[in-house]
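User: Can you model how magnesium ion sits in this protein?
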Amino acid sequence: MNEFYQLGYNSLFIVILMSFFIGALLCVQIKINIWSPWMPRFTIGYAMREVLLLEFASSIICIILAGKVGSNIASEIGTMRVTQQIDALDVMGVNSANHILLPKILAMVSAVPLFVTFSVASGIVGAYVVCKLGGFLSMADLILGLQHCYEGWHLWTAYIKSFFFAFIIASVSGYFGYTVRGGSIEVGRAGTNSVVVSSVLILFTDLLLTNLLMA
Amino acid sequence: MISITDIHKHFDDQEVLHGISATFEAGKTNLTIGRSGSGKTVLLRCIVGLLTPDQGQVLYDGRDIHRLGKREGALLRQEMGMLFQGAALFDSMDVFHNVLFPLEMFSTKTYREQLQRARFCLDRVGLIEAEGKMPSELSGGMQKRVAIARAIALEPRYLFCDEPNSGLDPISSRLIDRLISDITHEYGITTIVNTHDMGSVRGIGEQVLFIHDGCAEWTGTSHDIDGTDSPHLREFLDHV
Ligand SMILES: Nc1ncnc2c1ncn2[C@@H]1O[C@H](COP(=O)(O)OP(=O)(O)OP(=O)(O)O)[C@@H](O)[C@H]1O
Ligand SMILES: [Mg+2]
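Assistant: Here's the modeled complex, given as structure tokens:
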């Protein structure tokens, strides 16, 4: 529960902030650079929604989290390793891998639906705000676009994918942290490596899952 | 009593321990001394099972720690307490919960008794007033004392200390030494202490094992140590 709070709550703000601006920016970009007069206006809202649901709220948010939470997990566990806290657990007879990694994986996997939900919601809020203030698009068109051909399944795929990504983030960074040998330099390297490896794995899994889920 | 026979250990292509045999008696403070890099920490890690020796046996009152099944191994570990070179307190928990942790994990006592025991152990090391602090807020010596409290929480039969007073001033060092020695005698624990502090050797060393370059060079009591005929130990003593 404590882990959930630490990993989840502390990342929620960045998720909301990023999604808000991406939602707004998507609207602006599509309107200025992609949209042309022969397209119905509501396509702007429609395209924004699809990008948000299909990729941003799951994959991109999780890559951002791999940077924030993943490096955090790796360096925290790595520090426990080099300061012999993991040895202390082992000597006591505690299964240190389970004891340390399991709560983090559970926390990540249970926090991630929250992230997806908040990401989609604040992305849409961002779009509303920019349309209202910027006057790019009337509210009616935006809402029409957001509802156009809505497929509930797309939202579900975002949740499904994000579960996999959350597991990747927590387990990859946990692994890198747990296997640190040496001192602070190695801890730093474990943090970086875990971000790189989990981002690549996320993208790769994304490709696989998208093929599986959308085909 | 812990007895080790013919412990060999190498890393990569470097052999660190070349066949060490010794006995560590119950109710006594057994000191392992030697120069930095002589292999004291590696030996201790082999004894507690954090490293597996390439060859040799470690017997805890007849039980070979490296050949026990999962359950017996776990039971044996609950009889062991260890004080690491850097204290190794869990820095996500405050002092009190550090001491409570092994009790929560393994004790069969009721929760209320566990709390009492944790308080008792903290009181034993004289740090009951620091119970709410985080490890990072303590001085090195206080951290070591908390680590001792954590190590004795489960009333261990075996206590291991790796350089308990490295980086401490002489007064704190003697305090930690006294604590370790008193606890050992009070509860009849088999205690092994790694050190290169001659103050500890003369103060609490009942049985001394001198390691030189991964070999057991000399064993005896702290009273005989000045009469040694080992040239390496002589050199070690002369430079204190
Ligand atoms: N994990 C390891 N990998 C490779 N070599 C190691 C490892 N641990 C220890 N060594 C080597 O083993 C030798 C003995 O190290 P050890 O830590 O046991 O010394 P020590 O007697 O405890 O010294 P100190 O008093 O400074 O703590 C050293 O030469 C060290 O380089
Ligand atoms: Mg050492």
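A couple of observations from the model: Chain A touches chain B through eleven residues (CB under 8 Å). The mean pLDDT of chain A is 90.
User: Helpful, thanks.
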